[in-house]
Design a protein that fits this description.
The chain is of the alpha/beta class and 530 residues long. It contains 17 helices and 24 strands. The strands form 4 sheets. An 11-stranded mixed β-sheet has the order 9-8-7-10-6-11-12-13-14-15-16, sandwiched between helices. Strands 17-18-22-19-20-21 form a 6-stranded mixed β-sheet, with helices on both faces. The two termini are 48 Å apart. Bound molecules: ligand UAG, adenosine-5'-triphosphate (ATP), 2,6-diaminopimelic acid (API) and magnesium ion (MG).
Length: 530
């Protein structure tokens, strides 16, 4: 599935350099190319290797970290995991043609024709080797890395929009899609593995991109997916409760995120843009090492890039952005106070890259928004319907608080909680919904491997007003009930799945798009304008 992200770069170069002849038997061509392929030892430094066995000078045809994707001639990385252990797939990798193995322990009874390299940390080795294999693509790009619990997708898309010109395409890596310069492909992970990331950055570089914006998830930092990557600017949006299944405490979650700013990923950014309105942002700004320039942003009066005169309504937001050398009035079609924070984050990142603030301000106006983020569905119905990706209690509180303030009628919400994710946020999400909405339909999000009844039990612990919430397993039915209930002046928020076009169950993934479902149901029900 992801082979297109990790082409055999050195081999492609070797192939291009071969003299063009009309008659080249395929196996001879393969042999010729292979002879020109760089050697295994090119990708390691002596200190990386604990012990080794076999020929370190053999050519390799590519890198793999999943035995199911090994191609003949590959170097396979056996990574220790939470669910599986890559070491138990070494035999399978060899059967598929792997000629060299990197592992933290060399298995006994090794195959003689294969080279084994023992390293202290296989994930670290994967990132280092991938960076060398793709020839340091991060260093050829102005790379902006955005982290934080919420706002990463929005801010990276804003940055891409602000930096792009008619002749300059800007790369993107994030939750919704990957823009590789020559094509855009749907995303399967917010921050993919280092092997895929360096492969993608190489494609951007080769397609002529000079900048790229990348979402950096806490899982990505912790699993060394961005180890050694050179970011010019890193951005911190905020830190609120999520992913405690993984990080256990908010402080541990913060420590992981702060590695993107303090050299903890092996590199430090030139500039850090940090949200001063967020308590963890304030802490981070004080802790960033001296050699990193900090540009704070926010509505706080002491922020370097700050917003004044913020005015919000259903049509958009107006604000004055103030920075040390000037100020500019901005009109944006974006709604919601948290989007002021996102606008400032993107503005601060572009300012940090030395872009003209006046030009940035002008371009903000034409930002089309992000798929599934407060996306308005207008099918002639008499009430507002918005599809949003709020999937934490903080995001729900922000989204609903904002809609409450600008909705004349009743506020309704359809929401759910994902399975195999942080259980502790579930009751808090219900409580946040009950704080603002007149009525809520709780339903399935992506149950994944968990029983929906268990997810509902967790969610029910946050119910305060049982008469204002109902639990309905089928998401389409829940949306249908909510559409039936809404009338003129009301607002319906469908939260949690945003841009997603599927629903993930234990043993199947089915097509499901909240936006399409709303459109279909409005059509079927012939909900008429007032
Ligand atoms: C919790 C988590 O992040 N887990 C990731 C981690 O899993 P793991 O360490 O348990 O790995 P594993 O599945 O046990 O496999 C170990 C090794 O064996 C290999 N293997 C496995 C099976 C096989 O047949 N052959 C084989 O070689 C695997 O490729 C892997 O190298 O490493 C795997 C390989 O890279 C990832 O696929 C996996 O992501 C899982 C599926 C996941 O759901 N991750 C989510 C939570 C995530 O990363 N989300 C963030 C976004 C969060 C946010 O938006 O805030 C993201 O960046 O997308
Ligand atoms: N700056 C912000 N502060 C708080 N909530 C926000 C902010 N920006 C967006 N949100 C809310 O969070 C949701 C997700 O936004 P976005 O996709 O930009 O975040 P993300 O960090 O990329 O999320 P993910 O970790 O799932 O990739 C939005 O739909 C909105 O409800
Ligand atoms: N990046 C988030 C997205 C959650 C989206 C929500 N629809 C869910 O499935 O819980 C995660 O993987 O935790
Ligand atoms: Mg995202």
């Amino acid at each position: 599935m992801i082979g297109y992200l990790t082409p055999n770069y050195p081999l492609v170069a070797a192939f291009r350099s071969l003299p063009k002849t009309r008659t080249r038997p395929a196996d001879r061509v393969t042999r010729e190319i292979f002879k020109m392929a760089p050697k295994l030892s090119n990708y390691f430094q002596e200190e990386d290797i604990r012990t080794s066995k076999g020929d370190l000078d053999r050519p390799i045809s590519g890198l793999a970290m999943d035995s199911r994707r090994v191609m003949p001639g590959n170097l396979f990385f056996a990574l220790p995991g939470r669910r599986a252990d890559g070491n138990s797939f070494i035999d399978e990798a060899i059967q598929r043609g792997a000629v060299a193995i990197v592992a933290e322990k060399i298995p006994s009874g090794t195959a003689a024709r294969v080279t084994y390299i023992q390293v202290a940390d296989a994930r670290r080795a994967l990132a280092q080797v991938a960076q060398r294999y793709f020839n340091f693509p991060d260093k050829s790009l102005e790379l902006v890395g955005v982290t934080g619990t919420n706002g990463k997708t929005t801010v990276t898309n804003l940055i891409k929009h602000l930096l792009s010109t008619s002749t300059q395409r800007v790369g993107l890596v994030g939750t919704v899609n990957y823009d590789l310069g020559a094509r855009v492909v749907p995303s399967y992970r917010t921050t993919p593995e280092s092997l895929e990331l360096f492969g993608m950055l190489a494609q951007m570089r080769d397609a002529g991109c000079r900048q790229a914006a990348m979402e950096v998830s806490s899982h990505g930092i912790d699993q060394q997916r961005v180890l050694g990557m050179q970011f010019g600017v890193t951005v911190f949006t905020n830190l609120t409760r999520d992913h405690l299944d993984y990080h256990k405490t908010l402080d541990a979650y913060f420590e992981v995120k702060s590695r993107l700013f303090n050299g903890g990923i092996g590199t430090s950014p030139r500039v850090a843009a940090i949200n001063l309105d967020d308590p963890y942002g304030r802490r981070l700004a004080a802790e960033v090492p001296q050699h990193v320039r900090v540009i704070t942003f926010g509505e706080s009066p002491d922020a370097v890039v700050r917003a004044e005169n913020v005015q919000l309504n259903f049509k958009g937001t107006s604000l004055t952005v103030v920075w040390p050398e000037g100020r500019v009035q901005i009109e944006s079609p974006f709604i919601g106070r948290y989007n002021v924070s996102n606008l400032l984050a993107a503005f601060a990142a572009c300012y940090a890259l030395g872009r003209d603030p006046a030009v940035i301000a002008l371009r903000l106006k034409s930002f089309p928004g992000v798929s599934g983020r407060m996306e308005r569905i207008e099918e002639g119905q008499a009430f507002n319907v918005l599809v949003d990706y709020a999937h934490t209690d903080d995001a729900l509180r922000n989204a609903l608080g904002m809609l409450r303030a600008i909705t004349p009628g009743r506020l309704f919400v359809v929401f759910g909680c994902g399975g195999n994710r942080d259980r502790s946020k579930r009751p808090l999400m219900t409580a946040a919904v009950q704080e603002f909405a007149d009525f809520a339909w709780a339903t399935a999000d992506n149950p994944r491997g968990e029983a929906l009844s268990q997810i509902f039990t967790d969610m029910k612990a946050g119910v305060k007003s049982p008469a204002q919430i109902t639990f309905t397993e089928d998401r389409r039915h829940a949306i249908s009930l909510a559409l039936d209930a809404a009338g003129p002046g009301d607002c319906l928020l469908i939260a949690g799945k945003g841009h997603e076009t599927y629903q993930e169950f234990a043993d199947t993934i089915v097509p499901f798009d909240d936006r399409q479902v709303v459109r279909e149901l409005i059509g079927i029900k012939s909900i008429k304008p007032a």
